[in-house]
Structure formats: structure tokens, C-alpha cells
Amino acid sequence: MDPILAATHADPYPYYARLRAEGGLVFHQGLKLWLASSAHAVAAVLAHPECHVRPAAEPVPKAIADGMAGKVFGQLMRMNEGERQRCPRSAIEPGLALIDADEVKALVGARLITPDADGLYNAMFRGPVCVVAALLGFSPAQGRAISELTADFVACLSPLSDPAQLKISHAAAEQLRGYFVELLDDPDNRSTLLAGIRQRFAADFDTLIANLIGLFSQTYEATAGLIGNAFVALIRNPSLLRDSTPVEDLIAEVQRFDPSVQNTRRFVAAPCEIEGEHLNPGDVILVLLASANRDPQLNDSPDAFILDRPHRQSFTFGAGRHQCPGQMLSLGIASATLKEVLAHRPALDRLNWKYRPSLNGRIPVFSDQLLKSL
Length: 374
Ligand code: HEM
Hints:
By secondary structure, this protein is of the alpha+beta class. Helix content is 48%, strand content 9%.
């Protein structure tokens, strides 16, 4: 096991506990990375002004720098510090926080959900982006096309992608851009989310479009993983599969207990001291969000799955200046999706799953036997 393989391991949590026992912030010789594994160290790294989201020497990964996907990547708030992060964020964050839970429920409910492995795949990997597209004012047909394009586009975010996937990602970025150019030109658009973002957005048109595409890419895998990991929890603890289980509580505990985003990275921009360790420019820190969630300093009985856990604390959505602005939205989409699928009484015990290859995402894909109605 190593801290990157841990993200897709069947049970990485005992390993994370061993890492925490070795120290909150420790250098891993094999990977040549610092590991932040305790809640204290994770909070300190995410709050530190010299811990940046991209290395200074490579703001855009070389493999994608020459195409449209690279251009979008370079403008995302997620991939920038300073004004290039704050400016888009201040335009986008307020609207995301105001989205009405009933509207999300209605949008999820309007999609066809079938109780088989294909249906579950669509509910995880297509539904969430379709909801975000609808909230921005796209039609259902456009939403379906956009969710396919997002699946292609996100290849540019993974170092595991091959040249063929990157080529497709550039093409998808071009097409997503085209969808937004048309949407922003449509006088009949009724989306209050889009209107608010446009009104507050102070940067140029290309940065606006890149960050709107960013809403799809940020939604795509992380929300699929949250929904999928909730089904894994139900399969592992069949006693939770009762009509009386509050789905919102289940999702809230799943995001802490078995997060879809297991780690993120920070790149040290200037000499600094964190947790008593001296760090140098160029150092890389693997921030183990999933490990911090299981730190007993953060949550009592952290390895217990407790639906009505009092004072639940979690780093799954990050912390500090890059903390996820889509948290409420993704929890709402995941809860509504789970309710819809469970209403079909799927035979979850007949499902198998494998985690998608990833360096940081924990995203199960279900397969094999068809889910049969009970
Ligand atoms: C379960 C689902 C999700 C999880 C676990 C998740 C997690 C995260 C995390 C950990 C970060 C911070 C990354 C870092 O600091 O290195 C982040 C940032 C971000 N997330 Fe999410 N996210 C989810 C869903 C969403 C959704 C639905 C949206 C929007 C529609 C969204 C939009 C964003 C954006 C725009 C950022 C960048 C913020 C910034 O850099 O200031 N996320 N997310």
C-alpha cells in the first residue's frame, strides 16, 4: 500500500491510521512527497498562504498546455491563487449556496432512473451534471450532451490519461465552450444562477466560460463517487436499508466516512514551517483528507458509521480559500438521487463494484448481475 494506491484500495483506513501514528506531516521517501495525514496538519496545510494548488513552474500540466483543455484548466479558480481564484469565486459561490433543495429534487426526479447497473451508472455519472446544466438554463437534451462531454473533458485533469484521451478532452472543451457561448447569448435564458454569476463576474468572457465549464468538471466525478459510496455503505450495512433511515443523514456520514475525494495536493511556493517541519519551494504535499476525517482528534469514534453523529467534522470538501463552494448542492443531488433509486427497491446485494483507476478519487463502478426488483 502507498498513500496514492490507498485512494482506490478496498479498505485504506487502517493504513491511514498507521500514517497518522507516524506523525501528522511526514516526508515519504518513496514518493518524494510530504504526507499530511492528521486533522491538524491537513488544516494547517490548507490554510497556509504558501501552499498553492499548482506548482509555480507548471501552472498548466505540460501534457495539455497546447490545447483548449489546457486553456480552460489555466483559468479555473480551482487551479489558481490570488485574484485569479478570488475573482471568479466571489461571482460563483453566492449563487451556488442559494440553490433551492426542492428544485434539485425536482430535477433529479424528472430523470429516468432504472434499477439496474446501467441505471445506477447514469444516476451517478450523468445525472449530477444534468442537474447543474439545468440550473444554468440548458435544456434536458443539451444537459445529456453536456454530461457526455464532461466525461470526456475531465480526462485532462488526470495524470493517468493517455494521449488519445487528452485529444478527446481538448475537443470536448471546445464543444463545452460552444454550448456556453450560445447560452450566454440567449435572451430567453431564465436561470437565476447564471444571471447572478454574470452580474457579479468581473473578469473577462473566457475566464467566465472556463469557470462555468469548471462547475461541470468539479461536479462530475466527486458527486458520482458520493452517490456510489452511499450504495457501498448500504451494501456493507444492510441494516441501513430501512425506510426509516434518513437519507440526508446517510449521505452526510458517507461523505465523512468514505469520501469520494480522498486527497488533494499542495505545492510549496516559498520557504515555510508547518507542524514544526521546514518546507522548501518545490516541495509537494499530499493532503490526505480522508485520513483527517478518521482522526480521533476531529471526530469521536471516527471509525464508527453513525447516522446521527453529533458535531460531524469533515475535510472531504477541503478547507480554507479553495473549500468547495458546491458542497450543499452535491449533498442535495446525492440525497435526491439515492431516494429515487431506492424507491425502485433495487436488489443491492447482487451488485459488485470496482473503483475507477484514480490517484485521488474513490469512485465505485457497479457491475455484473442486473439489479432485480425485490
Ligand atoms: C461530493 C461532491 C464534491 C466533493 C467531494 C467536492 C470536493 C471538493 C474539494 C476537496 C475541493 C477543494 C480542492 C482543493 O482545495 O484542493 C473542491 C473545490 C471546488 N469544488 Fe467541489 N466537490 C464536490 C462537488 C462539487 C459541485 C457539485 C460543485 C459545483 C457545481 C463543485 C465546485 C467546486 C469548485 C468550483 C471548486 C474550486 C473552489 C476554489 O478553488 O475556490 N464541487 N471541491
